[in-house]
Amino acid sequence: MFYEIYFFAYPRMRTFWRSCSGYLLVLGDNDNGELNILPKALQRCEHHGSVNSKLPETFQTNHLLFYERFKAYQDYMLGDCKPSEVKAFTADYLEKVLEPCDWLAVWSTDVFSVLVEVCNVELKDLKACVELVLPMQCDTRGCEMTEEDMKSLLEVTQCKVPLQELQVVYNESGDFDQTALALEHLRFFYKHIWREWDEEDEDDDFDYFVRCVEPRLRLYYDILEERVPAGLVAEYHSLLETCSQCFQQFAVLRSNLSADSDSELDNISMVEGLKLYDQLEMLTRKLHIIENPLLRYVLAYKGNSRQQCMQGRGPRESGMMVVHIVTASCNTLLLQSLLNDRLIPLCSAEDTEIQFHRDPVSAVDSCCQGDTVIILPGLYSVNNSIFLPDSITVEGFGLPDEVVIEKKDKGDSFIESTGADVRLSNIKFIQRDAIEGILCVRQGRLCMENCVLQCETTGVIVRTSAHLIMKMCDLYGSKGAGVEIYPGSVCTLIGNGIHHCKDGVLIKEFIDHLDMMPSITMENNVIHNNEGYGVIVVKPNNEERKAGDAIVHTSNLANQTAVNYSTDDSVASTVGKKWQFNRQLNPNKEVTCVQAVQDLMGDHIFVSIQGNQFRRNGLSDFGTFFF
The SHC SH2 domain covers which part of the protein (predicted)? Predict the structure, then answer.
């Protein structure tokens, strides 16, 4: 399966160490089919609500690790249930682990927290029958509640409260540890995993844990550990809220329809309901893309608003050009060399000024259109992202390994380019902890030459309508693709080394009514030692294949013989493009290699592809992913 390329299954551990709260949790079945969950010294949650809280301490359970929740949901709570069976499976799980009665809990809502005693549990409705503990121990938020008010509220609810609103009062005996953990799993599930519309899927015959629970759980921890760009997190939460509102409107409209009525009002409501249903399907599909680790990787998102709103300064009113020199210190020999080789040619005009800076970020932030930044040899550690909204030139004075810019702090990306004509050369960029990528060309044109890019997460991203020219660069270490190319972009890759990444080049050929095909030139690149594919194309699914399938062309293209491939003459004359691969002439692999080339030609996304070398890529030199 293609999914195995991008993420791995977690092992089925029977025992694991709960490091953050210091207990060993063992899960297993006894001879009676009951769950054995043996926590050792579950920790207490001190000062419930506030330091001056009147309430007793509860169990500390909200800092569970991914493995703990994964194991509980997969093996004990949900198993292989369908969406329509979730509630029944959950009730069955709770029946095995919950104490049936006579335990104290804090009933917490948005308005108050109050101490109650559980008299009975009604697992079918996931509720508990409770009594108020007297004298009343209660904390309120923004209101005042007396004992009589609380009794009246319980009377209205028939003394039944949702189980997920209960937090078990801490007890050192260990008798209620299983109950506390079970309620935590229940509470977390309905807050972060379950969606109101999950039961609406017409195809109910699927494993709910595999399709929904696992990807949503992974996404929750990816967000918690800051492995997802802030813009994508904001987009996801916004989609969730919009989808919830849409479903509520749809549910109300559906409940008001009469089954046997042919009235004009009902017909209008039915049309509105169909529109809402279509909107709901579109929103849930977008959520699925973000929740699925593979689709999130290959489809991603359009970027956050702050990055898109970066405005350039434009030219100075005076018309003066500025050369910005970046150095912490320099000797007379280096200064003389700089003067002869760069400053005298650049500053021949009288309207040119020279400014000095100690770091690249301050130099770039001071630039206006047409300025030049010259960075002298040294290691420059920066904490902020570098934004390039104007047409400027940034060059290193020396070899790339001598002029190094390193980003250490976490952030969405390292370099953001939106200028109409930006040029980078002779610099080594080292990425540390960036979430989105080492370089993102969002719009305009960026020409990068003789640079080294040492990635830690994603490599170079070329967004829709952007233009990247990358020549004689060395890119390695990306945990995603070395270069990600979006629809409607223009990308020219000439003489580069792209290696030791997840994939070499990822081409996103999915289009909508606003986008066009990408336009790509690849010449004389060496793409090698990537974990997945040398080049992989992502495109919409067709009727013949299932979404998520990979069509893999196992062609090991080496640097021995150059061969021209084309289909029939009409295609060659119509397309009018150069198709040339360096490849090893192996009779066993010639057919698949020709097929790979023909598929790429049929896509019409390459202006030219010739002289490239492909070596030791883990899965294949070429692959196609259908979504």
Answer: 68-296
**Which residues contact residue 26 at a Cβ distance below 8 angstroms, ignoring those fewer than 6 apart?**
14, 15, 36, 37, 38
What are the pLDDT digits (tens) for 67-120?
889 999 999 999 889 998 999 999 999 999 999 999 999 999 989 999 999 999
Q: What is the rounded end-to-end Cα distance, in angstroms, of the chain?
A: 13
Q: Are residues 194 and 238 in the same domain?
A: no
Same domain membership, residue 71 and residue 200 = yes
The domain boundary residue, chosen from 182, 214, 246: 214
CA separation for the pair 376, 335 (Å, rounded): 9
Q: Helices (DSSP H) in 225-263: which residue ranges?
A: 230-256
CB-neighbour burial class of residue 313 (10 A; exposed 0-12, middle 13-18, buried 19+): middle
Domain that holds residue 60: 52-214
Residue with tokens 């308005």: 111
Same domain, 277 and 133: no
Calpha distance 401→39 (Å, rounded) = 53
Record the pTM: 0.64
Q: Are 608 and 577 in contact (CB under 8 A)?
A: yes
DSSP state of 197: G
Q: Looking up tokens 């390329």, which residue turns up? A: 5
Task: Look at residues 240, 269, 304 and tell me which one is the last residue of a structural domain.
Answer: 304
348 is a domain residue: no
If we measure between CA atoms, which residue out of 115, 108, 112 comes closest to residue 141?
112
- The distance from CA 223 to its chain's CA centroid, rounded to whole angstroms, is 8
Does residue 249 sit in the same domain as residue 173? no
